[in-house]
Amino acid sequence: MTLRTSRRALLLAAVLSSATFAAVARPDAVPRTVTPRGPLTPDEQTNIAVFKGASPSVVNITVLGIERDFFSAQTHQVPQGTGTGFIWDDRGHIVTNFHVIQGASAARVTLADQSTHRAQLVGIFPDRDLAVLRIDAARTKLPPLALGSSKDLIVGQKVYAIGNPFGLDQTLTVGIVSALNREIESVTRRSIRGAIQTDAAINPGNSGGPLLDSAGRMIGVNTAIYSPSGASAGIGFAIPIDEVNRIVPRLIRDGRMVRPSIGVTPGPETLVRSLGLPKGVPLVRVAPGGPGARAGLAPFMRGAQGGIVPGDVIQGVDDEAVEDADDLLTALERFQPGDQVTLTVWRAGKVRKLAVTLAELRE
Question: Which of 93, 99, 169, 213 is catalytic?
């Protein structure tokens, strides 16, 4: 068969085929009937109610950096990233993670009604990855989130995360409390203790958003994920709301976390091992005239003959055990300068209680 003959055969087959299709009668085509779904399940109704109640209080935060034009040498602000925050009160205070705004020159807050407001920095506490911003907006646009409690959470109870993952604002994810009292690391490498672990999907951009219980109350601030890929792998962490509620008012009032101090310098963990000391915080310096010195605390030091003169090991603050310097800092941060605490102190095999009035730490 020649090439020309082959082409003619194909053309003839195509014509016959179209003629065959043309001969088929076409029935009427109308949209199909929608099957009624019935009422929403109680679980779905709860999901919807939680989102409707909380989403107006969740905001999108855009952080800005300074960029210099190569040709004109003029500088201008450009977006560097996004995160989530939530409305703390109707005075315009917005809470988010410190790492969301870290290194930014400015920030913009977009409310649920899509209005955008320039934010002012009020205070930060990097050790707990928290920051407070403030915007100037009408109070009617600033519904604060209802606060719950993190101390009575139970593993297995349902939780919700609302945030802006990958810049997709007002995204709801659902999960459970997977574990409690986890320990995660802040940007300053201080430990954040008591963290809530959840399998609710938390992705980049969710940071700073609320973790809610089934009553729509905030129980934590989403802050970190554990993921080799950087995306949600079912392991997210939130700062417990009891800790947030302790810190945020102090940031609003003072602009920083005013740390209480007992005027001592902790020794390294190697000192505990080398001297065979019990668990606790050994002291290597007690500031003259400070709270610790007035209470009778004494440091370990070398004597005239080169031997070690026994000093004090702090083992507890108000009956809360401390095993290292981070424990001691965490315990003291629950108080304010002027408060009195009772230290449990070990020295040369004897344990005693000492009352100490806290002073403000000068940094």
Answer: 99
Q: Which CATH class is domain 56-141?
A: mainly beta
**In terms of CATH, what superfamily is 260-360?**
PDZ domain (2.30.42.10)
274 catalytically annotated: no
Which superfamily, per CATH, for 158-254? Trypsin-like serine proteases (2.40.10.10)
207 is catalytic: yes
Percent of all residues in the chain with a pLDDT value above 70, rounded to a whole number: 86
Task: Determine the pLDDT at residue 269.
Answer: 82
Q: What is the pTM of this model?
A: 0.75
Residue 86 buriedness (CB in 10 A; 0-12 / 13-18 / 19+)? buried
Q: Is 117 a catalytic residue?
A: no
Cα separation, 247 vs 268, in Å, equals: 28
Within this chain, domains 56-141 and 158-254 share the same CATH topology? yes
User: Taking CA 181 as the corner, what is the angle to CA 190 and CA 122, rounded to the nearest 5 degrees?
Assistant: 50
Q: What Rg, from alpha-carbon coordinates, does the chain have?
A: 31
- Provide block-wise average pLDDT over 10 residues at a time, the chain (363 residues): 56 53 70 89 94 94 71 56 92 95 88 93 93 94 94 94 84 94 87 90 87 95 68 78 92 88 88 88 91 92 82 92 88 89 92 92 67
Pick the catalytic residue from 57, 117, 127, 129.
129
From the list 150, 178, 186, 207, the catalytic residue is: 207
